[in-house]
Design a protein that fits this description.
The chain is an all-alpha fold. The chain has a single domain, classed as CHAD domain (Alpha solenoid), CATH 1.40.20.10. It is about 70% helix and about 0% strand. It is built from 9 helices and no strands. Helix 2 crosses helix 3.
């Protein structure tokens, strides 16, 4: 049973002062992200799907901040590798949650189709429960608390200054001025990846429900390319949110809103791509939980059809994205 302290906690706005240096801002951003991670840990350990999601959001924000400042200061490799491993653990569990509670339910299965989907949902829920159990044990391990404590100390005490080759350089400028080139870099990376999608070759919605033959290596490559755009969009959006309190309000809000809308579309497509892989895993043991081969084929075909339609709907938003200008101070 979840208690009040186990309820999911969303990210708090990062509040920067205009007299802060870029280094001050970095410290405050990192500690803000870590508070969100810590605040959701108890709920995640108690198998709260939403707490797990918010803990993962906090970790994504933290890793985005580390990437944003990587050319100025770098978290020690051991801690960075620990955060990457934690992200994989949280992500694997979240993937089963989404399949069980969202993706399969979104196939609008009724009548005879419901009989195809129900065994898959039951199997996905079982895998989700097993994954939550393993994750809970990992979060209770001392090594997990040690990792977060070390990263908190790194930000709190500005441990990057202890490095023998540390040079303050750009970190000494005002946060507003220092944010501009960081945001511009994030936008250039996003624009480059969006242009690389080659949307003029996007397939038409031609994969009928029940037919998984269209799920091939080409589609997997396209899904990976869309995922890279999605990650770049998240990092650009997080960067703008981190510095929102010292940037032009209206321009920043429009920029964040544009990226959020794109993220939603790309997120739906990513959920479908992940579902293809998870459904393939469920299909490795036919007969278990009442799953038959035709159940898998039906769901994967449905996912392929949804993906083809989603890719077509993505073309205009991506064209607008290429023209989107980064926030300037």
């Amino acid at each position: 049973m979840l208690t009040k302290t186990d309820l999911p906690v969303k990210a708090e706005p990062v509040r920067l002062r205009r007299d802060m240096t870029l280094e001050d801002a970095y410290r405050r951003i990192g500690l803000n992200c870590l508070r969100q991670i810590r605040a959701n840990q108890a709920g995640a350990q108690r198998r709260s799907i939403e707490s797990l999601h918010q803990m993962r959001v906090g970790l994504r924000r933290l890793r985005a901040a580390l990437d944003l400042f990587d050319n100025l200061v770098a978290l020690p490799a051991r801690q960075r590798e620990g955060l990457d491993a934690l992200a994989q653990q949280l992500g694997a569990t979240r993937d089963w949650d989404v399949l069980a509670t969202s993706t399969l339910a979104g196939f609008d299965a009724e009548g005879a189709a419901a009989a195809q989907i129900a065994p898959l949902q039951a199997a996905a829920q079982e895998r989700s429960a097993r994954s939550h159990t393993a994750l809970g044990a990992a979060l209770e391990a001392p090594v997990h608390d040690q990792l977060l404590t070390e990263v908190e100390d790194w930000f709190e005490q500005r441990r990057w200054r202890d490095e023998p080759d540390f040079e303050a350089g750009a970190l000494e400028q005002k946060a507003k001025r220092g944010a501009v080139p960081l945001l511009a870099h994030a936008q250039r990376r996003l624009r480059k990846r969006a242009r690389g999608l080659g949307l003029e070759r996007a397939p038409h919605a031609q994969a009928p429900a029940g037919d998984a033959e269209h799920v091939d290596a080409t589609n997997a490559d396209a899904a990976h390319a869309r995922h890279r755009v999605r990650i770049a969009a998240k990092k650009a959006r997080y960067a703008a949110e981190f510095f929102q309190s010292v940037l032009p309000g209206r321009q920043t809000k429009r920029y964040i809103a544009s990226l959020s809308s794109l993220q939603d579309r790309l997120g739906e497509l990513n959920d479908l791509a992940v579902a293809q892989g998870l459904l393939a895993q469920l299909g490795e043991h036919p007969g278990r939980n009442g799953i038959a081969r035709e159940h898998i084929m039906f769901a994967r075909g449905f996912a392929a059809a949804r993906t083809a339609a989603g890719v077509q709907a993505l073309r205009k938003p991506l064209k607008r994205l290429v023209k989107l200008k980064p926030v300037r101070g």
